[in-house]
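Standup notes
- DV: blocked on the single-chain target, sequence here:
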Amino acid sequence: MSVVIVGGIECMVRPYKDLCRKYRCKAKIHSKMAVILKGHKTESGDGMYA
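- DV (later): unblocked, structure below
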């Protein structure tokens, strides 16, 4: 299973990864949400950010 964590604080990235590894999940952690969401829209094109 894969897990994506959006938000949180930068110093928690490693603990998040360790926790996901404990449950045998692949993890992608994005602590800087504004940079990630800039300019990306959903497939439906409704203007909602994903």
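- Follow-up: The helical segments are 13-22, 33-37.
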